[in-house]
Amino acid sequence: MDTIGFLELTSIAGGIEIADAMLKTAQVDLLFAKASCPGKYYILVAGKVSNVEKAVQKGVSMAKGFMVASLVLPRVHPQVVRAINQSTMPEKPDAIGVMEFYSVMSSILAADTAVKAANVELIDIRLGTGIGGKSFVVLTGDTAAVEAAVESAVRPQMDSGMLVNRIVIPKPRKELIASLF
Is 158 exposed, middle or buried (0-12, 13-18, 19+ CB in 10 A)? Predict the structure, then answer.
């Protein structure tokens, strides 16, 4: 798996139908397909570039008026998929960075950019469920690396209007880290 494909839709029923069609169209793995806030449906698939492109094209062609966003991200960093599927508690974080977006797609792109830009570890990518459709990325590393990763990741998002906020906290308290899980 070197590529992920993502669809964000405004119809739950349509999303379920589209997820099925995407899986029947190309050899891809379904990482998740789920309803989210506020009444959206997210589909995330993974596989080889050509298969993911074919599956996403099928989804986009079926989406009609339900499409919010779509993304094919080749050469995705493996930490991105891990952080989407499960959070990891860092042992001794020197700093944490948090990037908050109005768009799930923006979080995925920012997470991939951040982890490729500096020596950081993704802790979590929270994709819109239970938080009003917003999404956020939490990462850790030494303070300079976290600052560099966050700035590299949000720079391309500045003109999109999707960035809500970003912060870097040096030497966070243990209780704060525990509250993220």
Answer: exposed
Structure tokens at 165: 């906020």
Domains of the chain as residue ranges with CATH: 3-74 (3.30.70.1710), 78-179 (3.30.70.1710)
- Contact present, 61 and 26 (Cβ < 8 Å): no
Please list the rounded mean pLDDT of every run of 10 residues in the chain (181 residues): 91 95 97 86 95 97 93 92 77 89 91 96 84 87 97 90 93 85 72
With the C-alpha atoms ordered 55, 161, 82, 39, is the resulting torsion angle positive or negative?
negative
What's the Rg (C-alpha) of the chain? 16
How many Å apart are CA 27 and CA 81, to the nearest integer?
18
pTM: predicted TM-score of the whole model, two decimal places: 0.84
Taking alpha carbons only, the member of 38, 116, 132, 114 closest to residue 124 is: 114
Distance of alpha carbon 157 from alpha carbon 170, whole angstroms: 23
